[in-house]
Write a structure and sequence with these properties.
Elements (H helix, E strand, L loop, with lengths): L10 E4 L9 H8 L10 E4 L8 E4 L8 H4 L27 H5 L6 E3 L4 E3 L5 H4 L6 H5 L5 E4 L1 H7 L3 E9 L2 E12 L5 E4 L2
Parallel strand pairs: 1-8, 7-9
Antiparallel strand pairs: 1-6, 2-3, 4-5, 7-8
Length: 191
């Protein structure tokens, strides 16, 4: 299959503060024929006992994907566009190394299939010029797929950030999180 029409100017943006927990993204993802009716995106509560605030969990498509690096079967690949693909069904041995290694907690081992599955940024759609399913249905604009110029016009008081600090490790990603204007990184934790 030829995927040469992938638009490298378009990026994925997540604005956590805009998530309303409707789960339209999960439903749209599950409808995608390549996922086997499983959602590869997840909506989580921040602290359900204290707030109704939710967050969206998508694969961040790391520049140097640790999930692929720890896979003993070489089942997880990253293409020339920076998309980290879900485990190749013929190679995945179901060891869950990728699940434990991901700093964002994204890959999930689907026990029914004994296979790791995760968001591929709807590669079957984005590679032919379409937007990811989740971004097309998000009513609040928490998920957006487009250019940096478009997101800057839509969110003039925010800055897209794709550099995350985990202690002494910096992880750069293809997916951007919207932060207050002028931010350059998101510190998850520091020593």
């Amino acid at each position: 299959m030829n995927y040469t029409s992938f638009n490298t100017n378009e990026e994925f943006f997540v604005d956590m503060q805009r998530c309303i927990g409707c789960k339209a993204c999960e439903l749209a993802c599950a409808e995608c024929e390549t996922n086997g009716q499983e959602s590869m995106i997840h909506v989580n509560y921040v602290d359900r006992a204290a707030t109704v605030q939710t967050t969206v969990q998508v694969c961040m498509h790391c520049e140097d994907p640790v999930c692929a690096n720890v896979c003993p079967a070489d089942a997880i690949s990253q293409d020339e566009f920076g998309i980290v693909h879900t485990a190749n069904t013929e190679r995945c041995i179901g060891c869950s190394n990728c699940v434990m290694a991901c700093p964002f907690g994204v890959p999930k081992k689907e026990e029914n299939y004994d296979l790791m599955m995760k968001c591929t940024m709807c590669y079957d759609r984005t590679s032919v010029g379409k937007k990811p399913m989740c971004a097309t249905v998000c009513p609040s604009g928490a998920l957006f797929f487009g250019t940096k110029e478009e997101i800057q016009e839509m969110r003039p008081n925010s800055t897209p950030v794709n550099s995350f600090i985990f202690g002494k490790e910096t992880v750069n990603t293809k997916v951007n999180i919207m932060m207050p204007k002028g931010s350059t990184e998101l510190i998850i934790f520091r020593y």
